[in-house]
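Hi, here's the filled form for the chain we discussed.

Project: internal
Contact: R.S.
Residues: 509
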Amino acid sequence: MPDITKKVRVRFAPSPTGGLHLGGVRTVLFNYLFARKHGGDFILRIEDTDQSRYVEGAEQYILDCLAWCGLNPDEGPQNGGPYAPYRQSERKDNYRKYAEQLVHDGYAYYAFDTPAELDEQRQKFPNFRYGHENRDDLRNSLNLSQEETQALLEQEVPYVIRIKVPVDDTVHFYDMIRGDVSFDTNLVDDKVLLKADGMPTYHLAVVVDDYLMKISHAFRGEEWLPSAPVHILLWEYLGWKADMPHWVHLPLILKPDGNGKLSKRDGDRLGFPVYAMNWKDPKSEEITRGFREMGYLPEAFVNMLALLGWNDGTEQEIFSMEELIEKFSIERVSKAGAKFDFEKAKWFNHEYIKKNQVSGIKNQVLEILKAKDIHVQDNEYFDKVLETVKERMTFLQDFWDQASFFFEQPAVYDLNAVKPKWSDAKTEYFKELIKTWEGRKEWEALNLETVFKTLAEEKDLKPGELMLPFRVMLVGGKFGPGVFDIAVLLGKEETIQRIGKAIIAFTEE
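And the returned structure, exactly as it came back:
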């Protein structure tokens, strides 16, 4: 494994084309952890060279996602830096000179083939690819004379610049996860480096920008491995091989069954999000749900992502950001893809909600209540309710399901749980309970429970058969925290009122 001998500088370089997938956020996280551990810099660079795929609002969405996760870049389009600009579309003039240099040095060539001519080739050869097998038969500067090529350039005939991949060679490089990797150049096509509109492709832009921005380590998904030989050749052809970053190709995040890469379609099909935050398509206005809007805490999201393909070699699963930075190492990143387990993802969030202070989640939960047109007047009451139910919440959105009865009386009752075993004796019991509690000044859980059970014994009833009806009276169903804790929070007046209202519902035919 190569030594880290120069300042660590890593980058996340997304295309602003839509929602930010789990895999993208994990790439950000591993970049961030590595940079922080080694005292380096984390750079955000927007790779918007493909203007046909550019989506309005996508860049801001990426910035918002990173901010929500707490993975803020040291340099980027929002906060600038010594290597600005950080949008490739604003660096357009940087790329042409390097593409032309490659042509001058014999490592690339002008290709004047029209789209129609290339389509004709694809129809003739179903597996057509532009490369060493056919480039001498196509319309490019390799088989046109220098005079013909110059004439076409002067006539401003549209062209692209393609890399000239060597024949019968092998490209070797070291990957910090996979070790030694090699590619047969005969299986690599002559990728376009500069498009007809003057914009670079990813292949040229990523190499040029990584060099100019002094990137020391390039983290990216393993789906980019097939492109690696082109990039390695470009580093060599441009004379920069000594400055080439260390390569880190991260394993894929797989579907729950392990059969292929996790996609948005899989999330839609299986009922869970694959984006960090809600993404609204500006054209269709379709909203794709995100983890944040589902009620996921950012700390839980980050912790969950960290363990998709990495572990510290122990049984520990809950890590603070400080612990992740301290313990993260490339050596513990797996080569194999990591299956996404939504049940496990839910567990992480449940654990973080449980361990969070009320103050840490209060504002987010208040927003959920506002959406229900519930405006909290008593903050102390709200805090007690949240403290009581938070251990029962998997997502913040679960608060309403777990606690709505604290803010409004049940509109309906689970009568099926009560009426089959309801009796006149139970009706009389709860009427007597109302009278007993009305006269008491003390209103705390243990005392209420003692009175409840003592009265049951006096009436020759089993307390266990009365607990469920009492719960349904207060909350409407068979759920919620300790029923006497609920009564204490509701207060004497509200509790007695609910018992009286429910007796009527339980005794109606």
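Let me know if anything looks off before we file it.
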